[in-house]
Structures are given as C-alpha cells and as structure tokens.
Amino acid sequence: MLEIADWSVQGVKDRDFTASRGVALREFPLEAGFADYMLFVDRQAVGIVEAKKEGTTLGGVDTQSKKYLDGLPPHVQRVGRPLPFAYESTGVETVFRNVRDPDYRSRRVFSFHQPEPLLGWAREAETLRDRLKEMPLL
Question: Domain 8-133 maps to which CATH number in 3.10.590, 3.40.1340, 3.30.70, 3.90.1570?
C-alpha cells in the first residue's frame, strides 16, 4: 500500500533517501520501541505507520502510535514536535490522524497519502480543521 502511494519502502540499515522523495523506513528505532514504518519526505520525518495483523481491531492502537510520534531521537530531522501524522493499518483497514488538528481523532482512509501532500500539510501554519473552526458568519 505504501509503494502504491509513491513511498520507497526500505530497511533502516540500507536506507537511500535519494531513491524517492518519500521514504518509509521499516522497524525504525525510537525511544519508546520501534515504529513499523517511519515516513520521511525530503529527509525529514513526517509521521509513522503502525502495522497490525489482518483482523486486529485498531481501537486503542493510537496510544502506541502517540508514544512513537513523541519518541523520535533528537538527531533525526523532523517537520515538527511531535510528528504530525500517524497511520494504523491492518492492510485491509487503515486509519489516519493529524495530531495538529483541534480535537484530533483517527479517521478511516482508503490508502496512504502521497509524500507531497503530507509535507504540504505539515508546513501549513493552520490545519484545515483549524480554519473551519474560524469560518465567518454569513
């Protein structure tokens, strides 16, 4: 699914950030364990993917993912602190959240986002949901 969304899936030890704008590194070491996939765009960490076996309920997996978003080693370049994006996926069901959103929550998506939109969203001063809360009265 990551490759279909233009991510170059690689191992941590044999990583090559020149292979693609978006690189997903398997079993990335963090302070709180290992992220199944750490997502990098232009060599900057933007988020994580927590993969579970098909049939696993994804409820509650966000607690594990949250630790990973906060637990990136200090030497790793990142777009923000904490990392803004998290996915949990069984390969059949995938959920996504942007922790920069007000009252953020996981929501189902059909596939992983491509690298460019994630980087664009990470660079925005406010998220779409922030802007929607400030809509002018008609």
Answer: 3.90.1570
